[in-house]
Design a protein that fits this description.
Blueprint (H helix, E strand, L loop, with lengths): L1 H25 L1 E3 H4 E3 L5 E10 L12 H13 L14 E10 L8 E8 L10 E8 L5 E8 L5 E4 L4 E4 L4 E10 L12 E6 L4 H18 L5 E3 L4 E5 L6 H8 L3 E3 L5 E5 L4 E4 L4 E18 L2 E3 L10 E3 L2 E17 L2 H11 L3 H13 L3 E2 L1 E4 L1
């Protein structure tokens, strides 16, 4: 019997410890997941190119004269004369080619590119991107793209009907660009590391600095991190540390994150996202809708036989008014689960919940930022 009670007490203590620790686990993240290195940002590339091999879905040369000019210039560069000839085949399309050059990318590595139609092409499916140079904001060429285009959408057209799914005038070339120039980077020569929070917050920035300083005191004997503001945390490089190893150790440190309370509403799609820290003061809510239906049923009146009368139309209108809802509910949201349960008890659709949340915010009872998209 004593052994049985010991097991029960052990299970109770274990359950209490798990209850206390679980919320902390749910709010912790690695530094690499919530912040990025300022020196390791992406760079955008852009270029203009041609896609060939389309099955009659390319640009029309009358509506897109730049496509014909580009095709003639390309053929002339290849040593082919285009004098005196004009092609009406719609198997070529002019596109803008974009890509993101990742940080520390070396020459010879490949990146994905996105192509988007510039003219009146109806589909890029089955086309091939011809060699296109990609330039950065400084005008220098950093990559060259070429390859088969993959389009997720499709289009089927007949004489009297057309079916289109997705976007057929944009696609991707996986691994289609080869990096030719290396970005000027001196990561090893830097004197500090600058971490930028993806979601700026003063509390999270302070916690990152404290966690890094705790690691630095145990490893190097002194603090090295300072929170500059809500977005940047500056880490000074210790004299005896290797910067790459230092960053590898820091980015795996676990930090308890903090975010402001927000309610994000998208009225076009009816999407509602409520943060875990959103609170609602006690407030009474009544929601009801009034529906008015007007029906016109005109009647035709025929004259009596041999009366020499005329056929007339007698209007008849039926109006029905229906009111739904109207129940009054008290919403008190000390936590997210209670708030959602209170909104669901009213029994309204997402568009009604959006109106209720806006009304609660106007009444000053919503303790959160309301973001409308």
């Amino acid at each position: 019997m004593k052994f049985f009670f010991r097991i029960l007490s052990f299970i109770a203590v274990l359950a209490m410890s798990l209850t206390d620790v679980a919320p902390a686990w749910a709010l912790t993240s690695r530094i690499k997941d919530i912040a990025s290195l300022q020196a390791g940002r992406d760079n955008q590339l852009i270029g203009y190119g041609l896609i060939v091999g389309l099955q009659g879905t390319g640009d029309g040369f009358r509506a897109s004269p730049f496509t014909e000019q580009s095709m003639r210039a390309m053929l002339q560069n290849l040593g082919i004369s285009t004098q005196g000839g004009q092609s009406n085949a719609k198997n070529t399309a002019a596109v803008m080619v974009t890509a993101n050059l990742p940080p520390f990318a070396s020459p010879g590595s490949r990146i994905d590119v996105t192509v988007s139609s510039l003219g009146d092409a109806t589909s890029l499916r089955g086309g091939t991107l011809v060699m296109t140079s990609l330039s950065g904001a400084d005008g220098q060429i950093y990559a060259v793209a070429q390859g088969a285009v993959i389009v997720s959408g499709f289009q089927a057209q007949g004489v009297a009907a057309t079916v289109t799914e997705g976007v057929t005038t944009a696609g991707r070339v996986p691994g289609g660009a080869i990096i030719e120039r290396e970005l000027p980077s001196r990561f090893k020569d830097s004197i500090n590391l600058v971490l930028q929070l993806r979601n700026p917050d003063f509390s999270t920035a302070i916690r990152i600095a404290d966690i890094v300083n705790g690691y630095a005191k145990a490893r190097f004997g002194g603090p090295v991190a300072e929170a500059k503001d809500s977005q940047e945390v500056v880490i000074a490089k210790p004299r005896e540390a290797d910067l790459t190893r230092l960053m590898a150790d820091i980015e795996n440190l676990v930090v308890e994150t903090d975010t402001p309370a927000k309610v994000v509403i998208n009225e076009r799609t009816g999407t509602i996202v409520i943060g875990s820290d959103v609170r609602v003061s006690p407030v009474a809510v009544s929601y009801g809708t009034l529906t008015v239906q007007v029906t016109e049923t005109p009647q035709i009146i025929q004259p009596e036989p041999f009366s020499r009368g005329e056929t007339a139309v007698q209007p008849q209108t039926d109006i029905q008014a229906q009111k739904t809802g109207g129940r009054v509910a008290i919403i008190d949201g000390p936590d997210l689960r209670t708030l959602v349960a209170g909104l669901n008890n009213i029994g309204v659709k997402p568009d009604g919940i959006i109106a209720i949340l806006q009304g609660i915010k106007s009444a000053g009872a919503l303790q959160a930022e309301l973001v409308l998209q």
